[in-house]
């Protein structure tokens, strides 16, 4: 699970560098810089969808959650962190290639179980015009 | 002048304290300052409403007239006289306009160079400082700056809105072109601060239109007429100064900006092209800027403007204008000829749309609605170019092309002020995207993007870098914004040094540079050494960008001259499994 940050072509909050925002100001935590904090939830859990979720379901979940955690939509308490995590999850799962790569990096028996049904639909994601 | 601004600013501040907190919610107004026209709108409690000055139907002209000791902007003055007479006054040299094209630009900028044909003084020395602009007052050029002109205009606009709403106004959402650099954005903010307006958001114009579109789609859903399905809109906005495009993905009141692109090209360029076409020696006409010449260029400008407007509805237009001094223009201009003369501009528009579609990874068939807004969207050729590229027969008809952006800004103003509407009318969200790559200078003079364009905002990205030389104890982080591969081709935003790096062989230390954009679009750069670790390593540096003040054109060159490559950085290849 700790290998998520290595897929971080997209920013994974709490990854290489942590610039935590507190009360509108950025507080820098250099000590956490190299500590690749293992995210407590994987991308599917962040979006609250099943591992085999369709692209439409992922998009709908992203929109619904964005309205809760985006700083403009009243998600101000946690600053930008929640939205950054949500968007990173969405950006990875909405792109078929990224999603396939992400699924492969999810090692462990739990991930294997999740992946089984997913392989069914993956073909349709790839033929889907995705972005 | 500046004194006048200060007095008014403090005045409104004090009256604001007394009443505002008690009697009305502090709802931000939406302002669309165009290169040629300006409009303002506000949330009235159940909808957004455009504020109009009584007689001036086409919005307010964006200009400031300098006369003796009085200054007046286009907000109210435009309504008091006949349009033609007013236009002649504006072009007499005493008025400054097009400030949106001039603001925050250096005198080496080609847009500033092209502004020398305007009937007021634009003096450039070509050394990368703010151009000198001046208005003619009693036959003397009186100097001013684009920020100052904009502030005078905003002051009058603010007074007009306050008179209309009968309460003080303190917050505003302004629309800006996609092509605006972050430095230009700070100039707009400064002008607003000068008149006591706090900027809640600077919204790229097409994204304001996207917000209005999202609201209309929600409304349809409420009225049981919409399907609630995801809709993808291409928004094309072309005004007098700038041209932008955006692809927005809308469903459930959430509008996600998937791509943005824009350039400094607009009606002003079309106008200048046609003027040069009508009068080939136009450029030699304005160089000396005597009173006669200013008058002549003014007359030609008026006649050309009029002809271009007419060509939107008719195939041919007759131009007959006596410029005085023996200069005369007498010509019949056809639509075909007009389109040939402006061929390069239409091509630029095409490129903007193609880039926007490519960035959004979409084809014409994916687009549900094409929204055409801005003054130039009336030009038949522009319409056919945009609709042709999107393979559509007609554009979205649900909004007024001149009001869409300002209404969207007013919606955002209400949302950002925390207004909630029981009917769910304000239950909207725009997920913005960055219009340009943000990055630093590394690997020699290269520009390395850390946050690529069209990244969702808020955004945070980082990159690992290292030193270029053995025992290099300092590195210079130079932050740029733009699309060029070479650092120097982009807009310089700022720079800072990281010092006290432990001495080591080149490539041995690891330096992390992280860029962060928050929801209010504030950019911060964090940088520091992450390897080796320990007490000997200096603390990280956090810098809010841009740090540049005026006269930033020569900074990049000065840095290069002073330090050469001694403080350079190199990108570390991404490690697969750290």
TrEMBL record, chain A:
<dbReference type="InterPro" id="IPR052276">
    <property type="entry name" value="Diphthamide-biosynth_chaperone"/>
</dbReference>
<dbReference type="InterPro" id="IPR001623">
    <property type="entry name" value="DnaJ_domain"/>
</dbReference>
<protein>
    <recommendedName>
        <fullName>J domain-containing protein</fullName>
    </recommendedName>
</protein>
<feature type="domain" description="J">
    <location>
        <begin position="42"/>
        <end position="106"/>
    </location>
</feature>
<dbReference type="Pfam" id="PF00226">
    <property type="entry name" value="DnaJ"/>
</dbReference>
Automatic annotation (TrEMBL), chain B:
<keyword id="KW-0067">ATP-binding</keyword>
<keyword id="KW-0547">Nucleotide-binding</keyword>
<comment type="similarity">
    <text>Belongs to the heat shock protein 70 family.</text>
</comment>
<dbReference type="GO" id="GO:0005524">
    <property type="term" value="F:ATP binding"/>
</dbReference>
<feature type="region of interest" description="Disordered">
    <location>
        <begin position="1"/>
        <end position="20"/>
    </location>
</feature>
<feature type="compositionally biased region" description="Polar residues">
    <location>
        <begin position="1"/>
        <end position="13"/>
    </location>
</feature>
<protein>
    <recommendedName>
        <fullName>Heat shock 70 kDa protein 8</fullName>
    </recommendedName>
</protein>
<dbReference type="InterPro" id="IPR018181">
    <property type="entry name" value="Heat_shock_70_CS"/>
</dbReference>
<dbReference type="GO" id="GO:0140662">
    <property type="term" value="F:ATP-dependent protein folding chaperone"/>
</dbReference>
<dbReference type="InterPro" id="IPR013126">
    <property type="entry name" value="Hsp_70_fam"/>
</dbReference>
<dbReference type="Pfam" id="PF00012">
    <property type="entry name" value="HSP70"/>
</dbReference>
């Amino acid at each position: 699970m700790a290998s998520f940050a290595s897929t971080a072509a997209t920013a994974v909050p709490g990854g290489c560098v942590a610039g935590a925002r507190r009360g509108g100001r950025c507080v820098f935590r250099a000590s956490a810089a190299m500590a690749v904090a293992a995210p407590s939830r994987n991308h599917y859990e962040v979006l609250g969808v099943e591992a085999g979720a369709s692209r439409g379901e992922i998009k709908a979940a992203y929109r619904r959650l964005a309205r809760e955690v985006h700083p403009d939509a009243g998600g101000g308490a946690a600053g930008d962190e929640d939205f950054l995590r949500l968007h990173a999850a969405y950006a990875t799962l909405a792109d078929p290639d990224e999603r396939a790569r992400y699924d492969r990096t999810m090692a462990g028996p739990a991930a294997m179980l999740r992946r089984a049904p997913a392989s069914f639909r993956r073909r349709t994601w790839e033929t889907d015009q995705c972005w | 002048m500046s004194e006048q601004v200060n007095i008014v600013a403090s005045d409104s501040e004090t009256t604001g304290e007394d009443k505002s907190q008690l009697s009305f919610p502090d709802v931000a107004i939406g302002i669309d300052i165009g290169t040629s026209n300006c409009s303002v709108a506000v949330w009235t409690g159940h909808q957004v409403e455009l504020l109009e000055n009584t007689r001036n139907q086409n919005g307010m002209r964006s200009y400031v007239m300098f006369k003796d000791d009085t200054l007046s902007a286009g907000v109210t003055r435009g309504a008091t006289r006949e349009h033609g007479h007013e236009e002649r006054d504006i072009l007499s040299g005493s008025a400054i306009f097009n400030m949106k094209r001039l603001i925050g630009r250096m005198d080496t900028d080609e847009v500033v160079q092209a502004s020398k044909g305007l009937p007021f003084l634009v003096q450039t020395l070509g050394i990368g400082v703010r151009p000198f602009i001046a208005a003619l007052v009693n036959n003397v050029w009186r100097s001013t700056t684009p920020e100052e002109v904009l502030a005078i205009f905003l002051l009058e606009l603010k007074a007009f809105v306050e008179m209309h709403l009968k309460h003080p106004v303190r917050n505003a959402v302004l629309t800006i072109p996609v092509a605006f650099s972050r430095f230009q954005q700070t100039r707009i903010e400064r002008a607003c601060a000068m008149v006591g307006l706090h900027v809640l958001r600077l919204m790229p114009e097409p994204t304001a239109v996207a917000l209005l579109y999202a609201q209309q789609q929600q409304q349809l859903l409420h009225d049981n007429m919409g399907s609630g399905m995801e809709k993808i809109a291409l928004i094309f906005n072309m005004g007098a100064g700038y041209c932008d495009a955006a692809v927005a993905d809308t469903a459930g009141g959430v509008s996600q900006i998937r791509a943005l692109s824009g350039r400094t090209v607009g009606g002003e360029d079309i106008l200048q092209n046609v003027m040069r076409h009508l009068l080939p020696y136009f450029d030699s006409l304005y160089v000396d800027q005597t009173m006669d010449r200013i008058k002549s260029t003014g007359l030609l400008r008026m006649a050309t403007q009029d002809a271009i407007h007419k060509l939107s509805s008719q195939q041919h237009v007759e131009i007959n204008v006596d410029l005085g001094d023996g200069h005369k223009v007498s010509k019949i201009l056809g639509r075909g000829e007009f389109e040939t003369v402006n061929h390069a501009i239409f091509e630029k528009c095409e490129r903007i749309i193609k880039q926007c579609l490519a960035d959004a990874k979409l084809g014409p068939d994916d687009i549900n609605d094409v929204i055409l807004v801005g003054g130039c969207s009336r030009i038949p050729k522009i319409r056919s170019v945009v609709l042709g590229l999107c393979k559509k027969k007609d554009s979205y008809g649900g909004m007024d092309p001149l009001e869409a952006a300002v209404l969207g800004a007013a919606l955002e103003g209400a949302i950002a002020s925390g207004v909630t509407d029981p009917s769910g009318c304000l239950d909207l969200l725009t997920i913005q995207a960055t219009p340009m790559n943000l990055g630093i200078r590394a690997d020699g003079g290269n520009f390395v993007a850390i946050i690529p364009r069209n990244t969702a905002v808020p955004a945070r990205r980082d990159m690992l870098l290292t030193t270029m030389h053995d025992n290099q104890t300092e590195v210079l982080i130079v932050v740029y914004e733009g699309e060029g591969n070479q650092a120097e081709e982009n807009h310089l935003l700022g720079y800072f040094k990281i010092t006290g790096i432990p001495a080591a062989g080149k490539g041995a230390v690891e330096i992390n540079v992280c860029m962060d954009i928050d929801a209010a679009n504030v950019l911060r750069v964090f940088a520091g050494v992450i390897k080796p670790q320990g007490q000997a390593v200096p603390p990280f540096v956090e810098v809010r960008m841009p740090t540049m003040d005026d006269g930033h054109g020569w900074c990049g060159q000065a840095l290069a001259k002073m330090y050469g490559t001694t403080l350079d950085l190199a990108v570390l290849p991404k490690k697969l499994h750290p």
